[in-house]
Amino acid sequence: MPITDEMIRQATCDLYDRALRKVPDDVTRAMEAAMATESSDTARDTLKLQLRSAELARERDTFVCSDSGVPVYFVKIGTRAPLDCDIKASIREGWDHLVETIEPPMLKHVTNPLTLERGFHGKDMPIVSYDLESGADWVEITCSPKALGSGRWAALELFTFPSLEEIETYVLDVAIKAGAQHCPPVTMGVGIGGSFDHAAAMAKKQTLRAIGTVNPEPTLAAMEQRLKTAVNALGFGPMGTGGDTTVLAVHVDYASGHGFTPVAVCFNCWINRRTRVRLYGDGRQEWSE
Amino acid sequence: MAVHELSLPMTEADARRLRLGDQVRLSGEIFTTAGIPTHQRLLRCLDGEEELPFDLNGGALFHLGSLNAQDERGELTIRYMNPTTSTRFNDVMPRLIKGLGLRATGGKGGLDAACARAMQEAGCVYLSFLGGGAPIFGDGIRRISGIGWPEMISHYRLARIEVDRLGPLTVGITANGDSIYDRTADEAAGKRAAILDRMRAEREATEGRKA
User: Which domain holds residue A158?
Assistant: First the structure.
């Protein structure tokens, strides 16, 4: 049995819908762990309130945040996936359907940057990127509703043959500039190397990596720990009212490139909206956060 | 930590009594918008080019976006509300705080030093709302009692909302101009060199072991 248009449309809707209502379990676990070591009373109160908000949204089946963001999807197509569908068109239709049917309705956040008019649709919406997975018999779609609070503070700089010190100093400086504007505690993603576009994509994808997963590259695993400790030592705290918990995790990826080395930094706010599903031809769906 | 139950409109003494980090619950009438165009329109009102839809004098104007509507019978509804980033309004807030005589403003992320000075002059406090707190703040809504500028998109409209123990909110900038945002930013800048030294030492230890 093939993967159909209807399966893609439905997945596009369900992924977004779930992301708006449920804070991933690894995130709430990381926040609970942070509460145990947080030294500021205000910060502990804020973390507690955040966890309560997540719990209430789940119980009441409603949105955690009113900024439902703009739709961003990553699609990975298995080279052996049985396809009988126009994936691109079906994702667009799935988004259109979501906009018309979701309860409660979403606010209009899709903005034309030339006119500043806002709605639910626009050029290149939803933002979708595609990749292939050799030998796989599934289509995987990852959804990341991206809002202004955390979207605004991403940054990219180009270096030539940088040392690890230069790279880490830059990441720390981006964190200082962002302060607490991005609704901390955040997840930070960093992409080092490759090309301008590839570094940005790596950073973004690293914000969607589950907290607690170990970086297979020992140099980066050590860098992630160093950066997490460093950013938390800055003291911005949850929602910026001071404390030891500004990031829940820093995730880093790298790629080979030329001697010009882009370093990209990206944030996801505390509610860390991300959902993922693998679709199989026999109708099976594997969901993850 | 002090928790203040405050009725709106707030007196100047109420506003000036609040300290950084205090928690607040509000009851009474608040005004909300999340729109830059709305703020520009409020400035035009101060210039006498347009009428204010509501009397905001001595009021509480928050950077909150809400899903609100008015049906054919004129009935108003609100489904959810949540804060937006206040620093987007840094440029216009000093004039609005002083011109409208606001007692309270707020949202998330704070306001800059020029706004804090305006707040000190006017006796106005900044309250930090939890980002991603829509379910929490929904519990504090009693009803929506007015929609100003209904032709704008929902979260840009100037909404008048009756709240009952809305919160908890955290005092981020006091009416005496103390700002947790300025304080944390200054402290972070001050710690930068020592943090970088520590990272260098850790890096040398880790990378040295591998070599």
Answer: 148-268
Pairing of strands A155-160, A247-255: unpaired
Regarding whether A260 and A239 lie in a shared domain, the answer is yes
Contact with chain B for residue A113, Cβ under 8 A: no
- The CATH number of B3-178 is 3.20.130.10
Q: Which residues in A lie closer than 8 A to residue B90 (C-beta atoms)? A: none
Structure tokens at B143: 């009803």
Check whether residue A137 and residue A259 sit in a common domain: no
Residue A212: CB atoms within 10 A of its CB come to 12
Contacts of B188 in chain A (CB under 8 A): 176, 179, 234-236
Q: Tell whether A224 and A113 lie within a shared domain.
A: no
* CATH of residue A16: 3.30.1330
State which residue of chain A sits closest to B81, comparing Cα positions: A66
Judge whether A55 lies within some domain: no
Report cis status (omega within 30 of 0) of the bond before B37.
no
SS3 category, B190: helix
In a domain, A51, yes or no: no
Q: A168 and B198 in contact by Cβ < 8 A?
A: no
pLDDT tens digits, residue range A92-113? 999 999 999 999 999 999 999 9
Same domain? For A121 and A156 the reply is no
- In chain B, residues with a C-beta closer than 8 Å to the C-beta of A63 are 80, 134
The answer to whether residue A40 sits within a structural domain is no
Model's pTM, two decimal places? Answer: 0.95
A284 shares its domain with A233: no
For B55-121, the DSSP string reads: --TT-EEEEEEEEEEE-TT--EEEEEEEE-BGGGGTTTHHHHHHHHT-SEEEEBS---HHHHHHHHH
pLDDT tens, position by position, B130-179:
999 999 999 999 999 999 999 999 999 999 999 999 999 999 999 999 99
Report which of A229, A223, A231 is spatially closest to residue A267, judged by C-alpha positions. Answer: A231
Specify whether A116 is located in the same domain as A250: no
Burial class for A23, CB neighbours closer than 10 Å (0-12, 13-18, 19+) = buried
Radius of gyration of chain B (CA): 20
What is the residue whose two structure tokens read 């009693």?
B142
Kindly determine whether residue B109 and residue A240, on different chains, have CB atoms separated by under 8 Å. Answer: yes
Give the gap in angstroms from C-alpha A192 to the nearest C-alpha of chain B.
17
Same-domain status, A116 and A238? no
Is residue A28 in some structural domain? no
| Helices A41-60 & A25-37 angle (0-180, nearest 10) | 160
**pLDDT > 80? residue B18:** yes
Q: Sign of the C-alpha dihedral, residues B177, A232, B131, A264?
A: positive
Does A173 share its domain with A227? yes
